[in-house]
Each structure stands twice: as structure tokens, then as C-alpha cells.
Design brief:
The chain has 3 helices and 5 strands, in the order E-E-H-E-E-H-E-H. The chain is of the alpha+beta class and about 120 residues long. It starts with 6 loop residues before the first strand and ends in an 8-residue tail after the last helix.
């Protein structure tokens, strides 16, 4: 793919429709580095923002991008390096121990009766 050697203009679309960027990234930039960039640029006034890169998922072309991949590996050969690529950002906080216990207790406390 010829696009792998170049720079990619990427903007990140947040769930509320606002954007971070666009910024230019080399094709060798890892997805984890993109997520670190998003964390650094996250608007402070937005509630429930990500705390770590584990809270973020990047979606491009309908696929969730893996942290160990590079931007060049995740781009379709149809993309043009001269245009801006939009990646969707999903914030998904991991469940806390308290939430996990509540969920397991809820399923344990159910009883069922079957009348035949």
C-alpha cells in the first residue's frame, strides 16, 4: 500500500458529535499512541471522560482498532493520504468491583418456578 509511507490527517469524532483534531500522524504511529493523544487533548469540560487508554476504543471503517497495530496497517488502500480520516471514539469505562458484585448478586437472587 502506497499510503503506508505517508502522513495521515486524522480527526477523532466523539460520541456527542464534536471532534478532536485533525492532526497529522505518520503511518508508523501505533493505535495506542493515538489513544494517548486523545487523552491529552480530551476537553476537560466533558463529563465521564476517559482516564486511561483502556477506557478508549477507536473505530475506523466499522472495525475496532487494536492497540498494537499502526495507523498504516489500519487504513484501507482506498483511503487517500491527502484527505482527513475520521475515527470514532467510544469511551467505555471498565466495570468496578462493586458493579461486578451487584450484577452477580442480582443473578443469584432470582428464583424461578415452572408449572407444567
Amino acid at each position: 500500500m502506497a499510503g503506508n509511507q505517508g502522513q495521515f490527517e486524522i480527526k477523532f469524532r466523539l460520541t456527542d458529535g464534536s471532534d478532536i483534531g485533525p492532526r497529522s500522524f505518520p503511518a508508523a504511529t501505533s493505535i495506542a499512541t493515538l489513544k494517548e493523544s486523545i487523552l491529552a487533548q480530551w476537553p476537560k469540560e466533558k463529563e465521564n471522560g476517559p482516564r486511561t487508554i483502556k477506557d478508549l476504543k477507536l473505530i475506523n471503517g466499522g472495525k475496532i482498532l487494536e492497540n498494537n497495530r499502526t495507523v498504516g496497517e489500519c487504513q484501507s488502500p482506498l483511503y487517500d493520504t491527502r484527505t482527513v480520516t475520521t475515527m470514532h471514539v467510544v469511551v467505555q469505562h471498565p466495570a468496578t468491583e462493586k458493579e461486578k458484585k451487584a450484577a452477580s448478586n442480582a443473578s443469584e437472587n432470582k428464583c424461578m418456578c415452572i408449572i407444567l
